[in-house]
Amino acid sequence: MENFSYPKCSGFFKKKRNLLYLASGNFSTNYDLLSLDKIYLVDRNFSAFKHQKSINNRKNNSFINFHSDGSKSRQILGIERDAFPAIDILKKNNVKIDYLVSINEGLEEGNGSYPIFTDILMGYLSPVLNEEIILIYDPSYYTWNYCALRKLDWGYKKTEDIKSSNCDYIPPVLFAPNLNPLMNQDFGNIIGLKKTRSEKMLNFGNLNNTKISVKLCSIWDDEDNLNMIGINLINNFPLKDRPLENQDIHIVKDFMLSKNKVYNINGKNIKEIIEYAERNNLKHIGLCPWMNGRYEDVIAFLRNLKTCKLDSITFYHLNRNDYKQFYLL
To answer: Cβ–Cβ contacts within 10 Å for residue 161, how many?
Structure first.
């Protein structure tokens, strides 16, 4: 990509250091232009770079090293997996991301199985993302995708439009190597995002020994503090991972259920959920929205509950309008 350079800054230069590109496609020499510590490319198939991969890399869930001249580089790393297991690899390596890129998931082209900007993926990705990130995306890609981005209704708020004069600016067209950069300088968008977090304590006087709250943030951000992660698993998005691993996992629902703490609360009422947690001695449980916006029965049950063996019940949500009834208490 010719004639590309970063804007000059006084006092600091590009504080944001790590970039993650989901559904990236193959390596592009454009990425050599980025002055970043690490660039992580996630795609199911880096077909043009078979010669750079070893059997050990694939079996051990390690990173693929890329470089435009065919040599290995620690700067540009590939994960040849579906996005969900790729996130597990990033977590295992304590990766924290400053830039998130999603240009084209390939849904209409036949390779993509699910949209990136959904609650289930963005929530699962949240622990890998820093509190403030920069999002690079194509707003012309699918109307419903743009609506999701416009609302930013998965635990983030927009802080700014990143202009070309900003030190953190990267031209979105750099991530669309099939486009002529000189003819497509207005391609894509780049914005700053910040995680939104809040917690409201709920007072049920009869349950003084159980902390009950509603929390705006990803349940996965609190995974270490929970004994149970209750998710309403109803979608059947295909998960097209490598055939040599996870052979019994073919949909996102099964991937989630393979996690030790996950419990499917679809079709369960609050009484059944609490009884399950008590039988299994699970003291701290988190619950994602599952009642289609109607929580009158949940509130009534908690008000009438005489005893509870749980230490905490936290109702987690990403969408701002979830759990409205709890916020009215």
So the answer is: 10
